[in-house]
DNA sequence: CCAAAAGTGTTCGATATACACCCATGC
DNA sequence: GCATGGGTGTATATCGAACACTTTTGG
């Protein structure tokens, strides 16, 4: 056998999107400790090597559970990152030695995209620090995590065009048309007129107006709506053809 | 370090689509030898373990070159297959031992989709047998290769909706509207009326009518067209919105 | 009363859909 | 002459695009 064939470690990394109250997309980052000095922390994407009896989808579900305490999150595998140099900076090598074991030659990672209501309580059983970070304020991250995040954003754009209903994974159960509009605008390339958006939304039977309206807002209060996934599945619509 | 973390071999497998003269999609299969008896051959997808200094995209390009002799083929990574039991049948274990080395515990594969004009000469530097197989006649394959092919078909469906121009990777340089229509129909879920298809196609400036027409056909000869990729890039159209 | 966002209708043009007949050719 | 597929036009319906004003509420 050629010694050239790679014997590698395989990991999963998860990009979890949330939508905050300033109408911005956020991503969940955790922190790794670089040195023995506690203050030397650096943000990174949550991830883990996979176990020997685990499929990658299962490993991603495990990482998401360890991260948030949520058992079944929506997730989507989107790309394998295998650049031979993706984990070759001195800091990254040092961290891998401590976290896993010394002399790991190479790690290939499978990246996942996941969605989370930003109000959901984050109950990590593994990480001390789990923080939402607005996507326009992502710091420099280790490995190729910045690249993974950039590609995950392209992926969520494609996703929303294929399956419009993913927006409801990011919104609260009760939401206003305004929130829906701004979330769609934050993700999609397609820009849509506000009035036409309203018209479109009200034509969907699976977006159901509630009797409740906003309170304590410094403008006319908006109506809340809820999403009915069963009706959606029957309707099989896209926002725009 | 937990002994549970997997140290795995990583491979790429390529699903190469072609479009034949009976208007059917085909896939390139190679053969592996199971025993020392030369006749014991079994079809499989072309693939290879990746080298230690290779990115997965590079490995897929290498596999495609070894398969066809073509240097730069269109390719698209579409999914990582990592079921712990995907390579656990006795035949598969026996074959891996012979092809690579004994006691390979697990192989994770990254699957690629590629496209090839079926008239292109196949010049394999590695495989003795390289055959086009119609997708409705794919035999039972080793590993999870049948599953990979099924998912690759879903992927090419999505692909053609995102980027209509991939059909021209499958058609000859000169093609008739009929070929284009039947290829599109073979891939896409969307069914389109023949006359409306004609109308649509002739509205595209990047599909250019040639002076040449079919000869020796038992019906009115169809005009040949060619595809101009530069004009296409400017136009940025989809077949259907 | 002012700021801020909610909510609402109509017109126009483009595009998808549906549909049926005659034409050219080889055999 | 006949079988096979090539090639064409029109009418209708739907959908997306563009566009501005009044309403409600809190401060």
Automatic annotation (TrEMBL), chains A, B:
Pfam families: NUDIX (PF00293), WHD_NrtR (PF21906). SUPFAM superfamilies: Nudix (SSF55811), Winged helix' DNA-binding domain (SSF46785). Residues 11-146 form the Nudix hydrolase domain. CDD domains: NUDIX_NadM_like. Residues 167-227 form the NrtR DNA-binding winged helix domain. This is DNA mismatch repair protein MutT. It comes from Cloacibacterium rupense.
